[in-house]
Amino acid sequence: xxxxxxPIQSYQETLQGILNFAISQTDGQPPPPEAAKNxxxxxxxxxxxxxxxxxxxxxxxxxxxxxxxxSVVLDPKREEEDRLEHLEVxxxxxxxxxxxxxxxxxxxxxxxxxxxxxDNPEFQWRAADVIARLTQNxxxxxxxxxxxxxxEAVQPLLHKDKKDIVRVKAIxxxxxxxxxxxxxxxxxxxxxxxxASIVDCLTEGDPSDRLKVKTMVFLKHLLRESxxxxxxEDVVPPSHLPRNVLVNVSSIHSIVSALSGDxxxxxxxxxxxxxxxxxxxxxDVVNTMLQADSIPFLEVAASRRDHLQQLPKDDxxxxxxxxxxxxxxxxxK
Length: 333
Description:
By secondary structure, the chain is mostly helical. It contains 21 helices and no strands.
C-alpha cells in the first residue's frame, strides 16, 4: 500500500518548506534528507526565480503595486531617487492593457501631466515614458490622453534646450499616442509648431543619433497616418498637414543635413531615405529641392550608395531597402 503523503500543513511556510512539499509530490513520498540539503544550498538566483514563479501562480496584485508606486511618486517628502524608481515601476506595469486602463480609472493621468511640466528632466522623461507605454495600441487610453490634452503637454519637451533623453521620450510618447488614434493625430496636426518642433529634433540642439533616428521614424509614421486618416479641413488647415509642412525648403534641408552629417549611420540613412521617398510620392518637387539644397546632398548620397554597392554580397543584402530608396530617388546607377 502506498505510503500516505504528508499534509501540506506539515511543511513550514518557508522557501525550504515549499520546496520540500513540491519535491514530495513527485513520487508521493516525504522528501529525503538530501532534498532539504539541496534547498538550503540553493543560490539566490534560483530562489528568486522560484519565488517569482510561485507568485505568478497565485497572482500578483499589480494594481496595488501601481497605487503604492503612485503614492510614493507624489510624496514630496520621499527621496528623489525613490520617487523616480517608483515612476519606473508604474511605466513597467502599465504596459499591461488592463493595468493601463485601471490607471486611467484611478485618475493617474493628472499627476503624469504635472510631471511632464516639471523643471526636473528626470521626472519629465520618465513621465513621458509612462504616457508612451500606457497609450501604445490602447484606444481607451489614447482617448483619455486626448481628453487630457497630453499632446500639448508633451510638445514643449521637444525643445532644443531639453536633455536628449527627454526629447527622445517625448517623440516616443507622441508616436505611441498618435498611431491608430484619429483624435490624437488631429491634436498633433492642429498645432503647426508641434510638427516644426519635431523636425527641429533632426538638427537643433546637437541631437544624438538615437534622437535623429526616432525623429525620422516618427515623421514617416506621421505622414502615413495623415494619409490613412485625413482630418477634415475645419479642424486641421491644409497648411498644417505633413505633406505641406515637410515638403518645403526648410524641412528638406533639415532632413538632408541630418543625413549628410553622419554617412555611416545605417539606421539613419535607411529611415531618412525612406522618408524622402514617401515625401516624393506626395510631391515630385522633392527631387528639385534636393538638387537645389545648399548642402551637396546628391554627391554625399552617391558616395554612400557606391560604398554600399561595393560591400560583399551578404553585407550588401542587409542594406537592400536603402539601396531601393537610392534607386527610387536618384535613378539607376
